[in-house]
Amino acid sequence: MAKKIFEIDLTKKMHEQKHPGHNRWHPDIPAAFSVEPGEVFKMECLDWTDGQISNNDDPSDIEKVNLKRVHVLSGPVHVNGVEPGDLLVVDILDIGTFSAHEWGFNGIFAKENGGSFLVDHYPKAAKSIWDFEGIYATSRHVPNVKFAGIIHPGLMGVAPSQEMLDEWNRREKALVDTNPNRVPALAELPDPDSCVLGTLKGADFDRVAKEGARTVPPRENGGNCDIKNLSKGSRVYFPVFVDGAKLSVGDLHFSQGDGEITFCGGIEIPGWIELKVNVIKGGMEKYKIKKNPAFQPGPVMPHYNEYLVFEGISVNEFSGDQLYLDANTAYRNACLNAIEFLKTCGYTGEQAYMLLGSAPVQGNIGGIVDIPNACCTLSLPKEIFTNNIIPKLDE
Amino acid sequence: MAKKIFEIDLTKKMHEQKHPGHNRWHPDIPAAFSVEPGEVFKMECLDWTDGQISNNDDPSDIEKVNLKRVHVLSGPVHVNGVEPGDLLVVDILDIGTFSAHEWGFNGIFAKENGGSFLVDHYPKAAKSIWDFEGIYATSRHVPNVKFAGIIHPGLMGVAPSQEMLDEWNRREKALVDTNPNRVPALAELPDPDSCVLGTLKGADFDRVAKEGARTVPPRENGGNCDIKNLSKGSRVYFPVFVDGAKLSVGDLHFSQGDGEITFCGGIEIPGWIELKVNVIKGGMEKYKIKKNPAFQPGPVMPHYNEYLVFEGISVNEFSGDQLYLDANTAYRNACLNAIEFLKTCGYTGEQAYMLLGSAPVQGNIGGIVDIPNACCTLSLPKEIFTNNIIPKLDE
Amino acid sequence: MAKKIFEIDLTKKMHEQKHPGHNRWHPDIPAAFSVEPGEVFKMECLDWTDGQISNNDDPSDIEKVNLKRVHVLSGPVHVNGVEPGDLLVVDILDIGTFSAHEWGFNGIFAKENGGSFLVDHYPKAAKSIWDFEGIYATSRHVPNVKFAGIIHPGLMGVAPSQEMLDEWNRREKALVDTNPNRVPALAELPDPDSCVLGTLKGADFDRVAKEGARTVPPRENGGNCDIKNLSKGSRVYFPVFVDGAKLSVGDLHFSQGDGEITFCGGIEIPGWIELKVNVIKGGMEKYKIKKNPAFQPGPVMPHYNEYLVFEGISVNEFSGDQLYLDANTAYRNACLNAIEFLKTCGYTGEQAYMLLGSAPVQGNIGGIVDIPNACCTLSLPKEIFTNNIIPKLDE
Amino acid sequence: MAKKIFEIDLTKKMHEQKHPGHNRWHPDIPAAFSVEPGEVFKMECLDWTDGQISNNDDPSDIEKVNLKRVHVLSGPVHVNGVEPGDLLVVDILDIGTFSAHEWGFNGIFAKENGGSFLVDHYPKAAKSIWDFEGIYATSRHVPNVKFAGIIHPGLMGVAPSQEMLDEWNRREKALVDTNPNRVPALAELPDPDSCVLGTLKGADFDRVAKEGARTVPPRENGGNCDIKNLSKGSRVYFPVFVDGAKLSVGDLHFSQGDGEITFCGGIEIPGWIELKVNVIKGGMEKYKIKKNPAFQPGPVMPHYNEYLVFEGISVNEFSGDQLYLDANTAYRNACLNAIEFLKTCGYTGEQAYMLLGSAPVQGNIGGIVDIPNACCTLSLPKEIFTNNIIPKLDE
């Protein structure tokens, strides 16, 4: 029996596909097809921007990207017999690129259109194209690095219930209301512009477009977690909020650094992912996996042996103000410290920044209790550099 | 030639030792001895509380610990020929416990005296004692786990310059002033009570005691970074701020989870550390390692193959309020999710909490740009459990 | 520009393919196509037996396999500008299965037709079919194991010079002549029966068929090394003996244990391999890589953390005779010890034997100087078993 | 309660120690002390030659070493309640060097006195001294390498029964009798010269000295396995042949390459080892661990990421004769190939040879069925070299 496949034609936009996919979260987006527990199936995916970025040296497509279009997702898939309260167990059996598309992109969003983690240091748009030779990536825009990708879906999630969706919209609106004109915005609220909602039409489309949550953040349903180690061979336990769970997936990355700090993003690709689903009836309560998914990573990620690790603490790098156990600031300083070091190796700041977004760098919480400073670390694998970057002792 | 050794008598307090050590940061604390670049020497260390915690089942010593006494450090060591602007390169050649002291402690500080990362969930003091058999730790207070320690110094640093010290005191006081009566406090300011300042006496003692920065946070000089992977075999690059660098070390941990979330802390031990120092003249500018230390981890940490990973996002767990890319909250939720799961394996919440503080769990930044939610993960190595904790699929 | 591809039609035998391939080593087998240094190309491969084994429960196809037909190889590929004395550098960029063929086979050859490493213990033919779900393999014939494949080409090599070929034939005939009627045979000599020799025809075919070396053993040109870690991401340095090097590849394995002890073999599959070639002019002398290839393994092999290791020494297991530093006997005893143990876990001897041939078990030389006993080890990764196989202490 | 310790005074020979130890295997050598199952105890050990080798640049002590003196072992330890048929479970809790002895030696034995794996290539004695700084070893005799030791006991074993001992002596004599004048010898038979037999005296001493098996080879009781990964944190399952098991240990190595190919040996040291014993009653039959020990390696060995791997096949390197699946010859050729390569990196043959004996190189069985050639590999970790040894592509 042939596998069920969510097919993608790379020459078409998501709403023109045989299966149109979606780019908002809503319980009423119809399933593309249904599967049985134990069934293996394949999802083909467009890149998260719906093909807005080109393989060239000009970052203007990054600068002007339509962010209302993201993320175009494949699905939803209805899993027969799965109900709210269950755990949906999803095995990521394999992931790959299309042989007709052996490249991906990383970019820094402009402050005015998206921004990024180091937006106040790097407010302008930039782009790097990464070429793949089998398991390896290199870039003409970031020289002297080569690494094996930890290919993964940046985004995988199940549908929220209507109650959960309402709560998302409430809490995010409350945040935006604290500073509605901020650039970049504090959050992206529902917006019918550029919606893709599967096969929905007419009044249903309009209603769902108006209510549907944006796919940008990770939430209780999984969503855009951007966890670089959620790679092939992983098993994910999703709490289930609607009948059939309604699983969707997209935003594939050939590779990503912890934090996905340039926002656009890891090495972004279209591609395919092979999945198998199972169920644990009543599993949310049984295992208390209720607020967010949990997962077991797969066994075939590249392992590195030698790292150069940069530390950062929670003191604002412009004002010198002391913040209280602020891990965001601590990690930002660790990233900035790494970038300053990489400049001494011959990289521009933008190149170093895009490298940290693309390569399998690790971001860790060091200490989070040592008042008032959080300590975070950024670990750079030495082996990804074709030159030796380690500082040399005086002879 | 015999190695230089900072000797410790486990039956005495830090101020009674042959080398009295110190528990504040100040450029004027006299060096215990000096070494040449290339020299190997040994530092013996008391536990960070100066021996206040006993090997028993009663947490009242944790509850009433005198936190003005921490951290009692060994040093400083003056490195000949090292000047401000250089990088001091410190090799951690080996670390070990004392054969007369084959146990350590982990504890949750009470909200009124220190607090911890999950203080609003676990406001009461608790204690777990961990026993060592060679490289392994087990605890009568946290059953069914056994793991190899990643033994490391929670705290290692060089002396600040007077200007740097003044800036620390300024910025930390400004933070405290925003909420001076908060419990737990936002930061610990200089306090002459319970000071140990090496061989300083009289007016010099009084001045340094009044100005000396507390050792609690990590700062530009390294300090209390609590990085679990800064273990044996590591090489650290410290920016240098005073002549001779004045290296100090203490707060040894037999093991620690990322974040050291119970605050008290990892598995706290007295012990010894063997160090070798080298120098890179003018290295701060040459390699732009100026704001914080950088390091290469050692090669002999235990590697784990199978993890169960919990995710957390930046939504306040009590109010449901949406926070903006708040990695602290996201990691707190990941920890809480792990604890809820561990309760289904038979642990109490306090046991699970202390396990996350003690065992080599990994805390990672997942996505830090996906507005408005940061995503952090807590990775629990399956191999440390003597039972299989992985959720089971329905048959 | 489209990649060059050695295409395979799974419904046809090797001699019927568009590119007919070959199953003997000879310098005069014509190249299928030529590539430039730096070029990436793809080789599709049939399984080593040319499709003689079926996905069913009956081992009679293993028992009666035509071994004169093996190994059907894809190639040769001529690399422009490469000459004898150079090193041909081959990057294994990626390897995969065909989506129409998601299974492989392992088998024990019968003593009368091939034999195997433990032939005197397991003289009868047996077969296990392994099914793939993405990166994982399981078998209905060997229950309770699941592991990620380390997919690799069992056989990759360059063409020998005529002189080298003559020497191979000389030395192997001399060995066979010491016991020409042995069952199983000591070596397989040239045999025109069942030859496939690319596009060769007529007298050239007859001459080459008569002289061409069998592909069974590894030799100076690489060949059938059956090294399980020569997997995706690896870089191989081949000494070059003829103009253009004439690279061939085949005998893909989804997985294999060290030693490939059942002979048939690892988990045998048809599939594809993506390669890139480079050259080091005069590299054989420059790096003294002259007698055999050398290689760097790739970074994405599954890593295991917990092993159960069996030892074996060089005492004959039937006679009790003491052999002198005989690593073959020592490894055989380590394998037998592992099988005896696995029987206590519920496996039959044949199942255990096929598991050791298929799963990523490690075979190591322990001591090879401690007269008179060699010590070899067989390391079984605990993680591949769905049950816990580790012996339990008395309570 | 104080731990039981087998104490060693480094200034004395084994027969002069408080616990005299032994250097032959015999069931009647009296136990030094007894322990209970579950008990932790410490064994201090002399180096295997009983202190015959000095820290200097002159290999004449290696050349003239008295091999009748080896290996001086610590023990035996009697484990209460353990009987033949049980499994003795030994945890290697930790291992270390003496702070007064931070160096070790590796040597090539002369052909006339011991020989080595490559004796026909390197017949003369050589010596390298390795200095330790914490977990790392370097050598003034083998420059530009630095690596973390995988410290382990080369030799650990239980006493044979009288029947087993008789069988050892029978089978080894039969081997020697095939070529009694061979240099080096095929095996070492019982020899009263230089015997150390614990506290035995008089007629008992004479009898045991005459019958006691040499400690050179690994055998059914464990013994001199020289397995580099049997390191700290390991758990060993020994079959038991006499009441109390009578466990002995010695021949500590700071590090060793697979095969211990120079014979003298790994990096040989005196030191200490902390052990814990448990029992599985009737475990030999229950788990079929009857012919040799099995073990689980510990979790803190250094992991390497990048290897350069050399292959070898079973063709005699002098005569060109084809051997039949001869793994000894295949591994010898892999070693020789590695040495030829290392000469291009600036090492002498002797230096390269001693490096392969000392550093954590891996020796693996590749294919052991591909008639007539066995294929073995020698994997050299790139990270142990302070220079980059990887061959460079033509630009």
What does this structure look like?
Chains A, B, C, D: GO terms for molecular function: formamidase activity. Chains A, B, C, D: This is Formamidase. Chains A, B, C, D: It comes from Macrococcoides canis. 4 copies of one chain form a homotetramer. The first copy, chain A, is of the alpha+beta class and 395 residues long. The first copy, chain A, has 2 domains: 3-296, Acetamidase/Formamidase-like domains (Jelly Rolls, Sandwich); 307-381, Endonuclease I-creI. Chain A is 16% helix and 29% strand. Chain A is built from 6 helices and 22 strands. In chain A, the strands form 5 sheets. The first copy, chain A, has a 6-stranded mixed sheet, with no helix packed on it. Chain A has a 6-stranded mixed sheet with strand order 3-5-16-11-14-13, with no helix packed on it. Chain A has a 5-stranded antiparallel sheet with strand order 10-9-8-7-17. In chain A, helix 5 (327-343) crosses helix 6 (349-358). The longest helix of chain A has 17 residues, at 327-343. The N and C termini of chain A lie far apart (68 Å). The model of chain A has no long low-confidence stretch (mean pLDDT 97). Chains in contact: A-B, A-C, A-D, B-C, B-D, C-D. Chains C and D meet through helix 2, strand 13, strand 18, helix 4 and strand 19 of C and helix 2, strand 13, strand 18, helix 4 and strand 19 of D.
In terms of topology, how is this protein built?
The structure is a homotetramer of 395-residue chains.
Chain A: E1 4-6, E2 24-25, E3 33-35, E4 40-45, H1 60-63, E5 73-79, E6 87-96, E7 103-108, E8 126-133, E9 136-139, E10 147-148, E11 152-158, H2 162-177, H3 202-211, E12 213-214, E13 218-219, E14 222-223, E15 235-239, E16 247-253, E17 263-268, E18 271-280, H4 283-287, E19 294-296, E20 307-313, H5 327-343, H6 349-358, E21 362-367, E22 375-381
Parallel strand pairs in A: 1-4, 3-5
Antiparallel strand pairs in A: 2-12, 4-18, 5-16, 6-15, 6-18, 7-8, 7-17, 8-9, 9-10, 11-14, 11-16, 13-14, 15-19, 20-22, 21-22
